[in-house]
Structures are given as structure tokens and as C-alpha cells.
Amino acid sequence: MLALFAMLPILAALILMVGLRWPATKAMPIAWACAVLGAMVGWGIDVSTIAAMSFHGAITAVSVLIIVFGAILILYTLQYSGGMETIQYGMQQISGDHRVQAIIIGYLFAAFIEGAAGFGTPAALAAPLLLSLGFPPLAAAVICLVFNSFPVSFGAVGTPIILGLKYVQPLVKEAVASGVPGLNFASPEQFNMIIGQWATIFHGVMAFILPIFMLGFITRFFGPNRSWSDGFKAWKFCVFAAVAFVIPYFAFAWLVGPEFPSLIGGLVGLGIVVLGAQKGFCVPEQVWTFGDHKNWDPEWTGDISVADTKEFKAHMSQFKAWLPYVLIGAILVITRIPDLGLKGMLAGVKLTFDAGFLGHPEINNSIAYLYLPGTIPFMLVALLTIPLHGMSGAKAKQAWTESFAKMKNPTIALLFAVALVSIFRLSGTNPNGLASMPLELAKAVSGLVGNAWPMFASVVGGLGAFITGSNTVSDLLFAEFQWGVAQQLELPRQIIVAAQVVGGGAGNMVCIHNIVAACAVVGLSGMEGTILKRTVWPFLLYAAVVGIIASLMCFVFFPTLF
Question: Which helix (H) or strand (E) holds 354?
């Protein structure tokens, strides 16, 4: 019964957004109301506490909205400065093939940004860039959401593993202290490294499969010929990109730790693949594009116009045009690596809010406004771009004005979506001593599937990301539970926890507030259900592949591993 109550808001969101195609601005308030009902009836939480939990979520939503605004601002600043058309011109010189551009920007550039910043930043940056290159907004959003999966478990310099496995660390220490036979780690840090190594095995397989599948998927549903084969013809380029990414990705995970695999993999892979594409290495012979905009399905486009220009011109050097993105990448790196000192300084500057006015001062949340990528570097770089690109005051003002105008719908959707998340996460604090909503749901699933758990461990990780919008938070919610299930079923803990971490990364492609944010930056607010209907298929593919590999590892290759 508790699991059914916990499922109610999820089912409401899916039925309204996917089934009835309601916009998130209408669906998420109803889903939130379902969460309120479940919390009151199932968990016995009083109205004032639920209001305080919702207030906690609203503060988190403001943080997400700052990131969304910063990403939109970068887009409009570059559009009005002439930088975006210069980038478009440069990309045409590398390749005019939209399949190649999808891999370079959606797969590799976004992986680098994920490695540095995480928290939905890659889709917010890469999707508008694809949009400006002539991609349908719907296709741009789907590509960036789906590709923001295998880099995520190592995103924000390893946060999903380093912070996400915090509640597993006492269990690791206990196992080490009790001298459990067969351990191949002696500390939580070594355990984290091993989880990262296992995660690269799961993600690494999908790093090859996903780009080929997605190019076929995109050409089937958005191409002029509606053909899977149009995308599959670029398979050699996909394999080339995957090799360029995966080798440094594996090397850093296995030799260094979980902080840099995605960041270095994305950066090294991007450099190699751009050089290869310029020389025509593995590039398909025939150039493929989405065709004339006039022939596109109306649901593919939003309220951010896509230029009909087929030929672009350079308004400045390519270096100057790309300089804002170079600055964004550099600032993200130096502000995310703890040893450089800036991370602690920026993250320590916070605005803290508590729900004392609702009678619950213990429920509090904060906005680290200087550490949010929406502020530094997005808004900072947008300001720096004005003199760097020689923008007039009028054009700069226009960029800021239009960016603010785009924030209405995502604000409504995110306030309710993240308030729902907070009720889910904080429901563990209740007068009846019940576990939180996500944990009760996961318990019900584990009870149903039993020894088939390795097939479903990553699905639970994905469910956590779907609910919370974060691989890190999914791991905080479920990693300890996954350890417990593995222990109870006598399955290898390392493999099951790694499957949780990987599922949390894959879940980013279906999580509601990432979809809302991606819709906002490409002008598709109200189309969230349409996107979710597209991204759920690659997520199911991801979960199936990871489930098969985890099952083989648990029952065939490493059944005696701790």
C-alpha cells in the first residue's frame, strides 16, 4: 500500500505528460498534490510539515532556475554578438553533417561539461548550440538529454560517487574491520575507486551502443526519410568517437579515481574527433541534414526561432567566437577541483532559508549562489562577452530581456516538480517511523523480483534520478539500500552498488526537472511529455544492457566477489 502511495505522483506525471500530453506547468502541480495526499494518508505527515518540505523544494528550484537562466543568457548573448553564427560557420567547415555535429557537441562537448559541472549543465549548454546549427529543437533536446548519461556518474568531478556513496561508507568500514574474506579494498576511498572502475564497464559498453542507436533513432523520427539506416550509416564515426572518449575515460577511472574520467574523456575525445572530422576520418560520404525547416512536423519546434539560413558567415575569428565556451570550461574546472581552493570559497557563500515561519525551523535549505554554474561562469561569461565581442549596449540589453522573458513556464513547472522531490526525499521524517517514499517503493520492487535483482538494480538507480533529478541524490537515497539487498541475497555488493550508480546516470535522460530545463533552453516549454515519450526508450535500452551485464557478472563471472 505504501509503495502504491509512493507511485501515485509518478503515475500522475506520466499519465498527464506522456498519455494526455499536458505541459509540465499543468501536470506537475497535480503530481505534487498527489505527493501531498500520499504523505498525509500513507506517512501521516501533517500539513505544516508538508508545506515546509515544499518550501525546501522551492529553494532548490530557484538554484536550478538560475542555471537555466544562465544557459539561456549565454545563447542569446552569442546570438546578438554574432558569435553563434561564427560558430555555425566553423562547424560547417568541420562538417555540415548533422550526425557528425550531434556526436561532437551532444556526445563529447557535453561529456566534458558534465565532467566539470554536472547538475543538468550539459543539456543546458549543448542543446541551444545544436539548435543554432539547424537541429529541430525537439531533436536537440532529446539528443542532449540521452547523451547526458554515461558521463554523469563521474560528473562534477566525481560527486555522484564521492558524495553519493556517503551512507555506504560506514558499511564499508564495518566490512573491513570485521575482516570479511575476499575484500579487495581496505578503505572507503578504495571502495569508491572500485565502484568507479565497475561503473566504467557498464557505461563503457553503452558509450559504444548509445551513439549508434541514437543517430538511428534521430534519423528515424526526425529525418526527411524517416529511416533508421540513415543514422546507422555513420556507425564508423560513432565508434571512432567512442574509442577517443572511452580510452582516457577508462584510464583515469582505473588509475586515478572517480574525479576526472568524464572531464578528461570528453576533452581528449573532443580534440581527437574534431581533428579527425576535419580530415574526413570515418565521416560518412554523404552529408545528412534534417532538411528544410518548412517540412518539419510543427511539434518539433518551439518559440525560439531557428534561422533558415543555409550559409553562415564569420563575424569574428573562431577563437573569439568559442572563447566564451572556453572560459566556461576553464572556470568550471578551476572552481570544481577542491585542491585549487576556489571550490570551498565559492561554495561557502550561501543564502540560507528555513521554514521557521511554518513552525519547522529544522527544515532548511540554502542557495550557494556563487557556486551555481548559472552565476559563475554563465552570467559572468555573458557579461565578459559584451566587451570581448564588441557588443553594443542595446544588443546586450536585448539578450538579457529575452532571457528573462523565457523563464515564466520553467519557473512554474520546476517549483512544483522540485517541491514534489523534497516531499519524496524528506518523507522519511514522519511520526510513524516509516522509511521514505523512494525506499518503500524500492523495497516493494526488491520483494517482487528476488534473485533477479541484478537485472533491476540499475532501474532503481534510474528511478531515483527520475524522482530527484540527480545521480548524486539517487545514490544518497538508494546506495545503502542496494548494499543491503545484495547482502541479503548474497550477491556481490560492488557490482550491485555500481549498477545503482550507473542507473542513476542513465536516469538523467528521463528525470522531469532536467527535461523541463532542457525544454526551457530550446523554447519547448509545454512539450515535456513529448520529450519523455522519446527519451524513455533509450533509458529502457540502457537499463536492459546494464541488467544483462550485471547478471552475468553476479552469477557467471564473479559470483564470489564481495
Answer: strand 351-355
pTM for the structure as a whole: 0.80
Beta bridge partners of 367: 351
- The highest-confidence range among 125-139, 208-222, 305-319, by mean pLDDT, is 208-222
183 pLDDT band, cuts 50/70/90, is: confident
Helix ranges, 42-168 (H) = 47-81, 83-94, 98-101, 110-116, 121-132, 137-147, 155-162
Q: Return d(Cα 264, Cα 267) in angstroms, integer.
A: 5
- Compute the distance between CA of residue 562 and CA of residue 558 in angstroms, rounded to an integer: 9
The number of residues making up the chain comes to 562
Omega before 377 within 30 of 0, i.e. cis: yes
Q: How far apart are CA 361 and CA 44, in angstroms?
A: 20
Q: What is the pLDDT of residues 113-144, one digit of tens each?
A: 888 766 667 777 788 889 888 899 999 999 99
The three cell numbers locating residue 164: 553519493
Q: Which residues contact 280 (CB under 8 A, 6 or more apart)?
A: none
Strand pairing class (351-355; 360-367): antiparallel
Grid cell for residue 235: 556507425
How many of the other CB atoms lie within 10 Å of CB of 310?
A: 10
- Tell me which DSSP letter residue 105 carries: I
Residues in Cβ contact with 560 at an 8 Å cutoff, skipping those fewer than 6 apart: 182, 492
Q: What is the phi/psi pair of residue 307, to 5°?
A: -65, 140
Cα–Cα dist 194/196, whole Å: 5
